[in-house]
């Protein structure tokens, strides 16, 4: 089932999330719904807060970044990179920081260059609650860092300069008020309050 994606301005996007265990209600269904929601919105990752759940869970399918296109060859680190991350811990970020234009399903129509380290080591539980630890690089590492920020209550726009954030303020305000057109279902915080 496609879930509404929570828009910028909703407090759930700024909460540090809670760990879950195997008894979390309807976990498999939640994971399946998150993938379906992400695919319907043409995303490569989505975190639980983006569907209104303050839990430490995100899903990624970065495969589109691994495909060749008119701009050239895809990133091999992203090819076949589909994962479920439960209670992840970012163990280490390392390497040179590099810029990449990031966007977010909760902040539609805004893409900005964000600097992030090129490598990460992440420890997590998979959908079967098996412990995993992976060392990632390139776009796979970047998507993990972006989604990990979500479960820490952070957004990619937090990494922008104060000037850039000030320039985006009007657009961000419009998103929180529901004054944005998207091809997927969204939940807008200020519309909930009847403003």
UniProtKB/TrEMBL annotation:
GO biological process annotation, one example: translation
CDD domains per UniProt: Pep_deformylase
A Gene Ontology molecular function term of the record: peptide deformylase activity
Keywords: Hydrolase, Iron, Metal-binding, Protein biosynthesis
InterPro entries found in the cross-reference section: Peptide_deformylase, Peptide_deformylase_sf
Reactions it catalyzes: N-terminal N-formyl-L-methionyl-[peptide] + H2O = N-terminal L-methionyl-[peptide] + formate
Top-level lineage group: Bacteria
Record-annotated active site: 147
Binding annotation for Fe cation: 104, 146, 150
PANTHER family: PEPTIDE DEFORMYLASE
Protein name: Peptide deformylase
Lineage, uppermost ranks: Bacteria, Pseudomonadati, Bacteroidota, Sphingobacteriia, Sphingobacteriales
Gene, per the UniProt record: def
């Amino acid at each position: 089932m496609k879930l509404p994606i929570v828009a910028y301005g909703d407090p759930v996007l700024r909460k540090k999330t809670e760990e879950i265990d195997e008894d979390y209600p309807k976990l498999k269904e939640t994971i399946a719904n998150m993938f379906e929601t992400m695919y319907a919105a043409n995303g490569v990752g989505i975190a639980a807060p983006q569907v209104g759940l303050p839990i430490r869970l995100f899903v990624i399918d970065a495969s589109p970044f691994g495909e060749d296109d008119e701009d050239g060859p895809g990133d091999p680190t992203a090819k076949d990179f589909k994962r479920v991350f439960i209670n992840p811990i970012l163990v280490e970020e390392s390497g040179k920081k590099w810029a990449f234009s990031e966007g977010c399903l909760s902040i539609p129509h805004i893409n900005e260059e964000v600097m992030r380290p090129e490598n990460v080591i992440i420890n997590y539980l998979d959908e079967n609650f098996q412990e995993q630890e992976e060392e990632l690089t390139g776009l796979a590492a970047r998507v993990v860092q972006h989604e990990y920020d979500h479960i820490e209550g952070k957004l990619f726009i937090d990494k922008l300069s104060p000037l850039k954030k000030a320039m985006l303020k009007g657009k961000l305000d419009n998103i929180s008020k529901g004054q944005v057109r998207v091809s997927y279902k969204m939940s807008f915080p200020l519309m909930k309050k009847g403003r």
